[in-house]
């Protein structure tokens, strides 16, 4: 797609503007590094465009602090203070979803926590509460059967408005891939850990 020009134009009766403004479902999958990093980069672009951004992190421990979280929350504060960009929310399953009364940090039933997170996301999608969603590492609850993939695909297909959704994680289910508008599979060619080097601040987090 050189210079942003599509190689083909479908005969769907839509104008160029209508086709351009359709909501996007993106999936970043594969065994390579950078799936979440790319999604957070897109979230920063969305913030700059004034979109309402919400990040939902599945699986990761609440103790795991990623640099993008601090950066995005700072951008959210900048919006609150000056009106620049858009509002930002960041939620992590590992510390208990913020809308649940009980903190699930030490809960044994991680599947129930993932289901509760998805239920809240589905509610927000139906209410058109955000413009840009990052569902980080959401492929794992789908792959493990904690959340029903067919239900997710159906709800995403019926989401109102122009809500963009980016889902990250390895082993994305085929049904999700088939439903996505944009799919990127990241493959590892080399990694510092192959040489016994641990993750570094500013690179991995």
Short description:
A 6-stranded parallel sheet has the order 3-2-4-5-1-6. With 205 residues, the protein is of the alpha/beta class.
Detail the topology: elements first, then pairings.
Layout: H1 16-20, E1 25-29, H2 35-48, E2 53-57, H3 67-82, E3 88-92, H4 110-127, E4 132-136, H5 139-143, H6 149-157, E5 164-168, H7 174-179, E6 182-185
Parallel strand pairs: 1-5, 1-6, 2-3, 2-4, 4-5
Helix pairs in contact: 2-3
Pfam family, one: CobA_CobO_BtuR
GO biological process, one term: cobalamin biosynthetic process
Region (Disordered): 1-20
Can you describe what's shown?
The protein contains seven helices and six strands, in the order H-E-H-E-H-E-H-E-H-H-E-H-E. With 205 residues, it is α/β, with parallel strands linked by helices. It has a single domain (21-101, 111-186), classed as Rossmann fold, CATH 3.40.50. The protein has a six-stranded parallel β-sheet. The radius of gyration is 18 Å and the shape is globular.
């Amino acid at each position: 797609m050189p210079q942003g020009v599509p190689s083909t134009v479908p005969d769907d009766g839509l104008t160029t503007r209508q086709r351009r403004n359709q909501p996007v479902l993106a999936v970043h999958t594969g065994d390579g590094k950078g799936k979440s990093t790319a999604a957070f980069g897109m979230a920063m672009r969305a913030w700059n465009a004034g979109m309402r951004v919400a990040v939902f992190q599945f699986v990761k421990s609440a103790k795991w602090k990623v640099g993008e979280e601090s950066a995005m929350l700072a951008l959210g504060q900048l919006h609150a203070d000056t009106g620049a960009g858009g509002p930002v929310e960041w939620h992590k399953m590992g510390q208990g979803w913020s809308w649940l009364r009980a903190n699930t940090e030490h809960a044994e039933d991680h599947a129930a926590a993932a289901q509760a997170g998805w239920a809240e996301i589905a509610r927000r999608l139906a209410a058109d509460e955000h413009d840009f969603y990052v569902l980080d590492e959401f492929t794992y609850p789908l792959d493990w059967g904690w959340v029903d993939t067919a239900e997710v695909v159906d709800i995403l297909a019926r989401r109102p408005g122009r809500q963009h959704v980016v889902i990250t994680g390895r082993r994305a289910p085929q049904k999700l891939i088939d439903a996505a508008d944009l799919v990127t599979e990241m493959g590892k060619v080399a990694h510092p850990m192959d040489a016994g080097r641990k993750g570094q601040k500013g690179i991995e987090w």
